[in-house]
Amino acid sequence: MAIVQNRGAPVQVSVRGWGWQHSGRNNQALHGLDLEISPGERVLLLGPSGAGKSTLLHALAGVLGDDEDANEMGELLIDGRPVHESRGRTGLMQQDPDAQVVLSRIGDDVAFGAENLAVPREEIWRRVPAALESVGLNLPLDHSSSALSGGQKQRLGLAGILAMRPGLLLLDEPTANLDPAGVVEVRDAVRRSLDETGATLVVVEHRVSVWLEVVDRIVVLAPAALGEPGGVLFDGPPATVLAQSRDLLAKAGIWVPGHVPEVRARITNPSDAGRPLLLEAEGLAVSRTKGRKRRPVVPAAVVPSVQVRAGHALSVTGLNGSGKSTLALTLAGLLAPVSGHLAALEPLARGAGPEPLKWRGRDLISRIGTVFQEPEHQFVAGTVRDELLFAPRLLGRGEDTVDELLVRLRLEHLADANPFTLSGGEKRRLSVATVLAASPQLLVLDEPTFGQDANTWAELASLLTELLDAGTAVVSVTHDAAFSAVLGGDRLVLGAPADLTGAQAATKVARR
Amino acid sequence: MSVDIIATPRSTALLARANPLAKLGAGMALTVVLLVSVDWVSATVALVLECILLPLAGLSLRMLLTRGWPILLASLVGGYGTALLAPKTGELLLALGPVTFSTGSLEAGVAIALRGLAIALPGIIVLASTDPTDLADALAQKLRLPHRFVLGALAAMRLVGLLVAEWQTLGMARRARGVGGASGLFSRLKAQLGQAMALLVQAVRRASRLAVTMEAKGFGTGERTWARESTFSHIDIAVVATGLVIAGVSVSAAVVLGTWNPVF
User: Which residues form the ABC transporter domain (chain A) (predicted)?
Assistant: First the structure.
């Protein structure tokens, strides 16, 4: 049983003339790629979107599937063997924390991979606590896996991978959906487990600074464009590669350390108090669940006072679970307040009444536009153009602004594409554009910069400063300090989650 | 912020420690016997004995009523319908035009209502005291059902809890686009259908990502081991015996009292 003995030892990866073509697409994601990774190396894989980084990772994990229409060329070897003969030698971690967890108790979930590799029962239960310890999840084995935060779910997924004792860790943007605290907690768990096991690492991520201290090699891939072969563009120690490719990476939207993307600055004075008041709240308690008479809900957050003025930005920040999104959804007229006073004033309401929650859909979108964290949740049409036409049609307005928005957000070449087929950055730009198509006076955004590349980030920030200067109010829930600094205005900091501390969430408003 | 509908904390009740297959077996034995006869004695005896077992499943009468009221309602409706339509034997009790009840038809109605409850209750007891993971382990290890199928279904059930939260988010996200604000039955129905489609799309996308996770963890190829062993113990013998005893006692009581009324 040579394979079993081999298990756990760091893996050597050989990519020789490898290429992959998705079914139904003309351009190849990857073509003629050559790459050697020695056992124990820690590689950060960079490249513009469409360079085939995820495809390569999935191929190495052996999960590209038996897609019969897809075309594979060249060789992909794990310790000199084809990928499909190397079951259990690799572990893959994806972006979506909820797609990481298989079973409902954390001990069982960690054991799942080891079970599939037919590890004996006694050995599994030796490995499970050790794996949980490595990733720093010190919870009982029968703890519910659904009750974990995003960062904890990712660490649980990692523990399950570690219990399989793989020689190669493949991480596909493992921190893209996490807040800053979650990013650090997952990164540190990965580093600790690499130090313990010595496994080889390949990580795809566009925020270089997160992984810079962990990796010892950076590989930059280029997409196979028309006439260009693609493949490895730069390869070497992090410092060298960053020095060589800095401009190219920044241009491709990768977050290079020390590089802040250029953003249009605000022209008007952010603290000009003469603008009309649009929305105000006093002693507002918010929650996603409705209370009953006998069992009133514990509010996710209680805010003493909020004022939203035309042309003003308000950034809502705070820890995970402090009720930021819930507050934003309540201000946006999508959730009913638990208690307290919330009123839209006449400049915003324009005859529709003081309660945004009771406005009809048509009245709501022309007054308050909300951009959700997950763009896919808001898609309602089959093509990008129909998506943008949806609001103007509903409002009985002309359709000429749509072409302008398409160009403004660089979506004109995608006008006939299905929204679900767009890249992450394109989906984000589209979801903002669809809301702007109704030209609302107040824009509410929930974590608009999560997982976005530097180019999309800069475009979004520039667009918002422009809207603010034109008199639109912007309320954004964000962990992104650079983003709220660009928008200026007020900051609302929500305290610890009420259900954890038992006390009502403390809040304060800071003026900058 | 997902709503978890299946991973409630593991029950500490005695029946929760029994093997799910033993509980299913006992429930089945009882169901078969009760299906055979329509009479109020066997149904009442079974129902009373089942109620005595409720604490062993960690259930109280109050919890039973809050969770199982639809079944109670359905039984009552079934009993009422039977009393209305059964042959009018015996003394006439009430006659209001077409609405007539006699002692015979009333007895048949009561028997149907009680039988419905007595058949449903074991199902509730098994569900309340059984952890889905334990059931999957028992089905795959003891009944030797294909583990790909059993564990796939188990993983899919976990996603159902996520869908509840997703439905709420989708509703808000679509209202923010102006969908569903219109009045009128047709446009509301259309909006609901659209939201259901969107939920389906999200469910399929998440399921395919979960499938990749499972495949990457080596699921579905070759032999696997089981971290949790599904075993039978003396509790399981007691569980099956109890099921058989309840079935036997209810039949005997009906036969002794002369109400035994086989359906064929």
Answer: 15-248, 279-512
Rg (CA), chain B: 24
> Is A2-251 a CATH 3.40.640.10 domain?
no
Read off the tokens for A118.
Answer: 């037919």
Shortest CA distance to A102 belongs to which of B130, B126, B218, B138?
A: B218
B112 and B29 housed in the same domain: yes
Contact A142, A107 (CB under 8 A): yes
Q: In what order do the strands lie in the sheet with A13-21?
A: A30-37, A13-21, A71-78, A81-82
CA–CA min distance B111, chain A (Å)? 37
- Look at B213 and A360 and tell me if their CB atoms are within 8 Å: no
Q: What is the dihedral of CA A190, B205, A22, B151, to 10 degrees?
A: 70
Same domain, yes or no: B88 and B198: no
Using a CB-CB cut-off of 8 Å, the residues of chain B touching A376 are 201-202, 205
Domain span holding position B63: 14-136+232-257
Mean pLDDT is lowest, of A260-264, B7-11, B54-58, B152-156, for: B7-11
Helix residue ranges per DSSP H, A332-367: 346-349, 361-365
- What's the mean pLDDT when you consider all of chain B? 87
Count CB atoms within 10 A of the CB of residue A141.
15
A378 and B215 within 8 Å at the Cβ level: the answer is no
The answer to whether A370 faces chain B, any CB pair under 8 Å, is yes
Given B6, B214, B227, which is nearest A108 (Cβ)? B227
Residues sharing a CB contact under 8 Å with residue A126, sequence separation 6 or more, in sequence order: none
CB contact under 8 A, A360 and B215: no
**Do the domain assignments include residue B150?**
yes
List the one residue out of A370, A368, A362, A340 whose CA is nearest residue A504: A340
> How far is residue A195's CA from residue A192's CA, in Å, rounded to a whole number?
5
Q: Where, residue-wise, is CATH 3.40.50.300 in chain A?
A: 2-251, 277-289+297-511
pLDDT confidence band for B40 (50 / 70 / 90)? confident
Once rounded to an integer, what is the mean pLDDT over residues A383-396? Answer: 91
Position of tokens 């709220």?
A: A484
Contacts of A103 in chain B (CB under 8 A): 133, 154-155, 158
**Which residue from A427, A462, A471, A421 is spatially nearest to A24, judged by alpha carbons?**
A421
| pLDDT tops 50 at residue B121 | yes
Nearest to B133 among A99, A103, A377 (CB): A103
Q: Would you put residue A295 in left (φ > 0), alpha (ψ -120 to 50) or beta?
A: beta
B175 lies within 8 A of chain A by CB: yes
Distance separating alpha carbons of residues A506 and A497, to the nearest angstrom: 9
Average pLDDT across chain A, whole number = 86
Q: Cα–Cα distance between A438 and A440 in angstroms, integer?
A: 6
Selected from 3.40.50.300, 1.20.1050.40, 3.40.50.2000, 3.30.1130.10, the CATH number assigned to the domain covering A277-289+297-511 reads 3.40.50.300
Q: How confident is the model at residue A507 (pLDDT cuts 50, 70, 90)?
A: very low
Report which of residues B184 and A159 the model is more confident about.
A159
For residue A47, the distance in angstroms to the closest alpha carbon of chain B comes to 23
- Chain B segment 97-126 residues within 8 A of A by beta carbon are none
Q: Which residues pair with A30 in a beta bridge?
A: A20
- Do B85 and B208 lie in one domain? The reply is no
Q: Residues A380, A420: contact at Cβ < 8 Å?
A: no
Q: Do B213 and A157 touch (CB under 8 A)?
A: yes
- Is the Cβ pair B216, A390 closer than 8 Å? no
Flag if A99 and B212 touch (Cβ within 8 Å).
yes
Q: Out of A92-96, A422-426, A441-445, B172-176, pick the least confident.
A: A422-426
Q: Find out whether A399 and B211 touch, Cβ atoms under 8 Å.
A: no
